[in-house]
Amino acid sequence: MTTPTSCAYCQQRATQLCAGCRSVVYCSREHQKEHWKRGHKRECKCYEVTSNELLGRHLRATRDIRMGEQIMCEAPLVVGPKVAATPLCLGCHRNLLAPQKPAMTFYKCSSCSWPMCSKECEKSPFHLDECRLMAASNFQSKINYNPADPEGKESAYCVIMLLRCMQLKRSNPEAFARLAALEDHLKERIETPLYQVLRANLITFIKTVLGQRDWPELEILRIAAILDTNAFEVRQNGERRKVRAIFPGGAMIAHDCVPNLRHRFDDNMRIIFLAKRPIPKGAILSISYTQPLRSTVQRRVHLKQVKCFDCACERCSDPTELGTFAGAHLCGKCKVGKVISQNPLENAANWHCQLCNVKKSAREVLTQDARLQQEIESLDKTTPVHLEEFIQGHRIDLHDTNTHILQAKYALTQLYGTAPGYAMDELSEESLKRKVDLCEELLQISNLFDGGWSIFRGNLLIDLEEALVAQALRLQLASECESKLKRAEELLEEIKNIMKHEPEEMQQMLAERQQILNAAMAPFSVGVE
Ligand SMILES: C[S@@+](CC[C@H](N)C(=O)[O-])C[C@H]1O[C@@H](n2cnc3c(N)ncnc32)[C@H](O)[C@@H]1O
User: Fold this and answer.
1) Could you tell me if residue 409 is inside a domain?
2) Known SMART domains for this protein (predicted)?
3) How many Å lie between the centroid of ligand 1 and the Cα of residue 8?
4) Are 94 and 242 within one domain?
5) Domain boundary among 246, 276, 308
6) Is residue 486 part of a domain?
7) Segments forming the whole domain that contains residue 450
């Protein structure tokens, strides 16, 4: 594309390129501002919506995108609780704190009895329409504080997001049309046990108890299916928020098991997408709808179940998973070869040992994987002990980069340095070295699965930096100490870049890391003896 030479506002000769889309130029800052107000705001994008048979609609870069560039910021169209949620306020969406003694009961909305923070939150625009509807049908929520299970999930919340979407049809038809234009996969979902339960319980409740008889059952089910296909989980840990929301622009982004974008949420629950690595013009923009450390079988089964498609990305198509063999097991016969799928895009394909060619059926592999996943999920993860035992105990059947071993190793990077009895200054030399080695090892893996400026990589670098400083401070030899601190310094610079758009708590934590590092480096500064 050749760069234009006349100002997009006044058509005079101009050279100042718009940094957003890089497809228009201006003669002055003033004309750029005027052009923005006159509509460039809507057009200034570095991607276009396009469509193909495999992905459906998706986004494609219309120019080269730099690593770390923010490419989209979008406010939610609808926000609401997840299908099952711990009690939360329907006004501000914060999880509710345990009520004070002696009442031991949540504050309840004076009209519909749903638990809320306070009278203030009752008036929140998020809650008004549903509150009116429930009050008009004399429905009163029964959710209350349960001291025996304060974190317990309430399935009654599943109705709220559906109602909010349905109410848009009357309150904001344009927004409803944007919602209704999203993919649903209702054909695939409708026969599933989950949708049969929805039909029997939720739809009946909405139509009979809440009096929404005019709504055809299929139309309500279609909204449920749109939510299942497109909603993002909005997590704001500092704000005690974990809800779901629809972002119609963000919903156009395709999945890839090695994605090039990451997303975060700002204080107003807007979603912001950033490029994790340089993205060339023409490339498909992607996020991951699943977890990077899971194996191909696990990811593909999950994607099929929740998003109704068969992933055929580069990682899924490669039986070695980019050389990591994450889905492979060690061969039970020759003990050294890795057993891999003969066709990873075909779930029923046989598996075979790369060395001795011994065969295993897909069913055997799936059963073994399910057992291992259950084993790892049921482990006590309050300290590193059981995870280390898991790794040790599976030395003969699982190799170093098998998915289950990687998951255990990732959990260990989090526990060494924080678990009770394993705080950084309590770690033995051996445990500290183990933490460093695990971080280094997982960083290699993250470079393949979730590289560049990913949060996964950023978090690993944070753990590694902290462990290196702790190691350095224990060293006797000044030169060794200095070289470890220099490495930590380089890592901290990189972490700051990766995390520069993350919330205030992260910036504070990084400022504290910088202070600790500065203090450790002080003896090596020029002029200090
Ligand atoms: C959030 S929507 C994305 C937008 C959607 N393509 C559309 O046209 O509305 C998710 C759906 O997009 C499709 N999709 C996304 N990534 C895909 C991929 N890597 N392979 C195949 N289909 C994909 C699937 O149908 C999936 O359920």
Assistant:
1) no
2) SET
3) 35
4) yes
5) 246
6) yes
7) 416-529
- In a domain? residue 434: yes
Element (H, E) at 232: strand 232-236
Instruction: Identify the three-state secondary structure at position 174.
Output: helix
Q: Are residues 453 and 496 in the same domain?
A: yes
Q: Tens of pLDDT along 291-338?
A: 999 999 999 999 999 999 999 999 999 999 999 999 999 999 999 999
Asked whether 342 and 350 are in contact (CB, 8 A), the reply is: yes
Nearest ligand 1 atom to the CA of 311 is 20
- Identify which of 48, 184, 255 to mutate to test ligand 1's pocket (most ligand atoms within 8 A of the CB): 255
User: Does the beta carbon of 224 sit less than 6 angstroms from any atom of ligand 1?
Assistant: no
Residue 253 Cα: closest atom of ligand 1: 3
Instruction: Give a yes or no: residue 53 inside a domain.
Output: no
**Is residue 238 within 6 Å of ligand 1 at its C-beta?**
no
- 526 to each of 6, 119, 494, 523, how far by Cα in Å? 53, 60, 24, 8
- For residues 435 and 416, the answer to whether their CB atoms sit within 8 Å is yes
Q: What is the pTM for the complete model shown?
A: 0.92
Ligand 1 binding pocket includes 307 (Cβ within 6 Å): yes
Q: Which atom of ligand 1 is nearest to the CA of 57?
A: 8
Indicate whether 529 pLDDT > 70: no
Q: Is 55 in the pocket of ligand 1 (CB under 6 A)?
A: yes
Name the one residue in this structure whose structure tokens are 């009163």.
140
Atom of ligand 1 nearest to the CA of 255: 16
300 touches ligand 1 (CB under 6 Å): no
DSSP string, 62-76: SS-B-TT-EEEEE--
Cα separation, 178 vs 174, in Å, equals: 7
Report how many domains make up the chain.
Answer: 3
